[in-house]
Structures are given as structure tokens and as C-alpha cells.
Amino acid sequence: MKDRFVRVVFLGTLCAGLFWSWHWLFPGPERVIRKQLSELAAAASITPNEAPLVKLAKAQQLCAFFANDATVTVDVPGRSVQTFNGREEIQQAAIGARAILNTLKVEFVDVNVAVGTDKKSAVAHLTATATLPGEKVPEVQELEIGFTNIDREWRINHAQTVKTLR
Q1: Whether the model pTM is above 0.85
Q2: C-beta separation of 106 from 98 below 8 A
Q3: Residue 12 placed within a domain
Q4: All residues at 6 or more sequence positions from 90 whose CB lies less than 8 Å from its CB, including other chains
Q5: Does residue 148 sit within a domain?
Q6: Residue 123 dihedral angles phi and psi, to the nearest 5°
Q7: What is the per-residue pLDDT across 30-70, written as a single tens digit (0 to 9) for each?
Q8: Average pLDDT, the chain
Q9: In 3D, which of 157, 130, 131 has the Cα closest to residue 144?
């Protein structure tokens, strides 16, 4: 009886370990996208006194999250609407922002990811907070970010601000 109990516990532990390993080694699309968004926020953030080569490297790292033909539309109240088409324009905008700003902290909160039924597309709705130098209250903006699965990697194909009632 005791031997049977040990076997059942061993098999249960083995099954739980295999299940956990499978999910760790092969995460679902939603988990991968959430991780990418976290890495994107880190790449968009600017630490104080970044060296010029670090600024360039982070701008290139930021662009790696986007598809070649990605479109980013930024419509912040009180500022003009700006649209960036393609990785090159996105990279130039990132380099320009890094040249102007000394620090910037970007975070994505309230992330909701909806993966398409085809498992090749997804849309993330989230709130972006950006803490600018000298400001105590962060800028807050709702975003919609569309992803597409290109060669087994999730890339951003469009991102846009969402108008909210204020």
C-alpha cells in the first residue's frame, strides 16, 4: 500500500513537472507578447547620461520589435498628430527623442492581449505611462498595438494612441 502511494505521488510530481516545463519552454502567444511589451518599454526608456553609442544601440533595439512596414500613429492631446511609417522612420524618431531627452521612463500597464483565431495576429490594448524629466505627474496614454507573427516571431505591425474621454 505504501509502495503504491509513493508511485502515485512520484507520477503526479512528474506530470506536474512536465506540464510546467512544457509551458516554460513553449509559452503561448499571449505570454510572449506580454514579455515583448515589457522589453519594448525597457528599450524605449532612457537612463540618465546615456552614452551616444548606447543611445544608438537602444534605438536599434527598439526598432527590432517592429515589422519592416509598421505604422505608428501618435495623437497626444495638445500636440500635433505624428505618423511614422516603416522601421527607418521609427528608428529616426527614437534617435531624435534620445537626443532631446535626458531621461524617460516608460511603463505599460493594464495590458490586455487578444490573439486572433488564426494565431498569426494579435492586438494588445494597454495604458502607457511616460515619466518625463522635471515632471512629477507622468503622461498617460491608451494604446492599441497590433502584432503579426512573422517567421515565428511576433512583430508590431501597427501602433496607435486611442482617444479617450477626458
Answers
A1: no
A2: no
A3: no
A4: 62, 63, 66, 70, 72, 84
A5: yes
A6: -130, 130
A7: 999 999 999 999 999 988 888 888 888 888 999 999 999 99
A8: 86
A9: 157
